[in-house]
Design a protein that fits this description.
2 helices, single chain, globular, membrane, five-stranded antiparallel β-sheet, transmembrane, alpha+beta, Immunoglobulin-like, YcnI-like_sf, about 30% helix, transmembrane helix
Length: about 230
């Protein structure tokens, strides 16, 4: 029975680990905002390493669809650096022509430990009206210098990439649904991603149940021989 309990505990830990790996991505929350409006989003960064903490987070804002006004909320223990880039084509916002916009935000000096996550709040707007989603390429730096890039685009009809870029879907004004086009096409991908994560978890549970069945069968065989 003690061996049975040990195997059961190990199987449970394995299942939890599989579920964690499937969901530990850098994301933007909430995932939907209104075209042309202002919004506050949180870049959620989980720590994926057991032997190192996250010490720096970098997020790039799309310069092909620049956002005129960007501000950040202070995060205790972290310093923030906001960088701007000159625009190839100035944008008109409320009657003023802007020649530069925020292109990168970097948080450093803090630490996200094993099993923890941190959220970095950013207020931005007005959001573009000619696209239905914005992708924010991100970099996560760990103690020791390892850098994980979250910059892979999700493609309609394909499985979610290993390191997807955080995506903010843009809904038409007055609507709660993502605007038609790329974001609408991406919805099946999101569902597929969720199904894939669920399938991995169920697969892990199936493996655990199979292992437990083998242990129970082996114990029964040993008892039968002793009898």
């Amino acid at each position: 029975m003690s061996r049975f309990a040990a195997v059961a505990a190990l199987a449970s830990v394995s299942v939890v680990g599989l579920a964690g790996v499937a969901s530990a991505h850098v994301t933007v929350n909430p995932g939907t905002a209104e075209q042309g409006g202002f919004t506050k989003v949180a870049f959620r960064v989980p720590n994926e390493r057991d032997d190192a903490g996250t010490t720096k987070v970098q997020v790039d804002l799309p310069v092909d669809h620049p956002i005129a006004f960007v501000s950040v909320r202070p995060v205790p223990g972290w310093s923030v650096k906001v960088e701007k880039s000159r625009l190839k084509t100035p944008i008109n916002v409320h009657g003023a022509n802007l020649t530069e916009a925020v292109s990168r935000i970097t948080w450093s000096g803090g630490k996200i430990d094993k099993g923890q996550f941190q959220e970095f709040d950013v207020s931005m707007g007005p959001l573009p009206t000619d696209v239905d989603q914005l992708a924010f390429k991100a970099e996560q730096t760990y103690e020791g210098g390892e850098v994980v890039k979250w910059d892979q685009p999700a493609e309609p009809g394909k499985e979610e990439p290993e390191h997807p870029a955080p995506v903010l879907k843009l809904a038409a004004k007055g609507s709660t649904e993502p605007a038609r086009g790329l974001a609408a096409a991406a919805r099946p991908v999101a569902a597929s991603s969720a199904d894939d994560g669920t399938a991995r978890m169920l697969g892990g549970i199936g493996i655990a149940i199979g292992v437990l069945g083998l242990v129970v069968g082996a114990l029964g065989l040993v008892r039968g021989r002793r009898a």
